Amino acid sequence: MDTIKRTEIKNLFTGQAKEKVNQPVCVKGWVRTKRGNKAVAFIALNDGSTINNIQVVADVEKFGEDLLKRISTGASLRVNGTLVESMGKGQSVEIQASEIEIYGQADVSTYPLQKKGHTMEFLRDIAHLRPRTNTFGAVLRVRHNMAFAIHKYFNDHGFFYWHSPIITASDCEGAGEMFQVTTLDLDNLPKNEAGKTDYSKDFFGESTFMTVSGQLEGELGATSLGKIYTFGPTFRAENSNTPRHLAEFWHVEPEMAFYDINDNMDLAEDFIKYLVRYALENCKDDIDFLCKMYDNTLVERLNFVISHDFKRLTYTEAISILEESKHKFDVPVSWGIDLQSEHERYLVEHHFKCPVILTDYPKEIKSFYMKQNDDGKTVRGMDILFPQIGEIIGGSEREADFDKLLTRMKELNMNLEPYQWYLDTRRFGTVPHSGFGLGFERLLMFVTGMTNIRDVIPFPRYPKNAKF
Fold first, then answer.
1. Taking Cα atoms as reference points, which of 115, 179, 174, 144 lies closest to residue 367?
2. pTM to 2 decimals?
3. pLDDT tens for residues 266-275?
4. Which of 3-12, 15-24, 110-119, 231-240 is predicted least confidently?
5. How far apart are CA 439 and CA 348, in angstroms?
6. What DSSP letter does each residue of 427-463 carry, written as one string?
């Protein structure tokens, strides 16, 4: 009978845990490992609350070989016992077990995580079980803390949480790589007089898609509430299998009325530094583990970001630096190209040796909504570039002039009908305003040291994969 109130394992390693030494405790969790001899078994138990396992010491004579044989990696237990100071290395306390209840066994012949050293590729194929590993437990705890920190930062800075729709009739980026939403019978599509699909018969009465960004609707929020942020899932039907792309990803997008490009850069730099600092202060055990197991420069790189002012320069200045570097890039450098990760990382890691904010990009490689500069060639876009990862934040001052925005949309041959509501923000009381987007999973790659974006989200969605 479970008569002792359960203690989460993380609470056994805090300063206050000393009060529990030599006191009865109850823990519940999953077995990481079991070892021992004929006299005693040592069970490493973890409940997900911390990267640290608690060692359970079980007397074989007390519990019997039959029960202990049923306990293997992956099994779930309730353990009552006495918390004592540990004589062994690696842990400060351990539990001398007085009672063990097996909630669920894990067959050693079929449980995929019985052995250590699995590849990331293998773990992606068992995404429903990989959160039980130390690595993904650490990554997902960091993910939670970063999500909390994002909400805390914006709340503390007077922003309102804005829920942009997931289903939309407009394409924010204009790239057309969107998942379509429909209730029509795909085997018997209704046709109009022109022989095309008749979307008036669809659920929404028009063609609709999964959103690639909450920005356009976010601008509505900024021009009414002043400062808002969106934080939710976004979708892109880009047939990409790179380590940096997902079909479903989470996006953080603040939009601010009366902010120009300089205000935007100030906010973005302060925001990203806050998040990295929060991770170092609140995820220390998990980050130390990831640093030890995967990337021994991780903590150094995180401290590097928060200890340096970000270097600000224009795209044109960056192109000159890259051209004069004589470095051999896979993609040749010339004014007008869309900078690749290799170019961005060269600027950050080799030339400036600090994070970089690039501004004033050629308008032809940027989205229609960015404010045009007086030169007629560039727009007030801004990208923040980080070591190892390249671009982590992209944003701009938005075009507030109705005529300029409309002209640019026409130049790009955009269908204006789905954007009339967006143009209304410029027709009625337009104001200078700015915003940026942070790919949440890109942030997590940087903070955890993971090299593949599929390993920082519980259930990755990418071409040919939507299971679990």
1. 174
2. 0.94
3. 999 999 999 9
4. 15-24
5. 19
6. HSS---EEEEEEEHHHHHHHHH--SSGGGSSSS--BT
